[in-house]
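Bug #77: duplicate submission created two jobs. Keeping one. Sequence:
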Amino acid sequence: MSDAVLGQFAPPADTEAEVDTSKKLKFGIIGTGWIAESHVLSLKQLPDVQIVAGADLIPGKAHKFFTKYGLPEVKCYPDHKAMLEAEELDAVCVCTYNRTHAECTIDALNKGINVLLEKPMCVTVDEAVEIIKAEKHSGKLLSIGFQPRMDENMKMIKKVVQSGELGQIYYIQTGGGRRRGIPNSTFIEESTAGIGALGDIGCYSLDMVLNAIDYPKPITVSGYKSNFFGTNPKYNNPADAARFDVDDFAAAFIRLEGGIIVDFRIAWAMHIDTPGDTIIMGTEGALRIPSTECWNGTVGGPMKLYKDIAGKQVEVEIPLCPEDESNGGIFYKKLRSFVDAIKNGTEAPVPSSQILYNQAILDGIVKSSELGHEIEIKIPDII
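Kept job's structure:
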């Protein structure tokens, strides 16, 4: 019986289609910080892509960046607007800090350029709405950078939920985080990041479970956030502690359409190894997903499916799918799927219409925490 349960979740053989290299898509990179490194390394492996331009606000940073990665011929610009004006681009990767995600993405879409936007989508739900308006007006492709969706173990979560084995989903516990893992740079200031652990790793945790249940609309949220560790030189570099003004821990109780409850918590630092595994509970079964530090790759270990079978309470371990590191792994697949969608005229691998709800929850947690009570999540109309 266990084999029969697991058999329906077996991943298909992973074969990559032959790539047409007769026309190379011209890419630009907006922002040349550390996340741009993964974009460039993956794009360099795509035979139907050419990186032709880059932009960064720090003088000389872009040229140094592209030279480091063997691309000294890439034209560099002092900001994204100058690059968009001067170049005929097919697509851009927006790799800037959170506060400029909306501006850079909207400007690129308004120029008729396809966009791969790094996570989080932006900072506020209002920004997300404006991004989607620009997307709809442009008719171009916008995909959000959630590479964990390309992982076979992450896909397994959705397969289990969509199979009906769990029955009607009514409660989800999710989160994760690091006992000590506070970043630095632009991540820790409100003026650049807008949100802290919520936007950096919390969005991944939410996407993992919301994608599995087809992203129902969020209705209300009671949120909490704090920064006891980031602001304390005992736990953070004193210089960084002095400028730290975002969240390093957040928690929330979220109500979704369909009567589903999400119990969420995420941390950059805490006095425990994990705030708990992810649990998806249904009327016919439940799924336990071992926690990780940030959910930006794969799951934390073999998952367990809890069922009643023939009157017996059973636990079925779902073996981990082997990690596929060919061609750069899931980050490569993120870029490959984006390029394929542009060339084939298909839907975005991670559509903005879904991540709008992700962003609305993050924004709702911040607002609820500041107000000190539960709030209704209001998403403006998109025309």
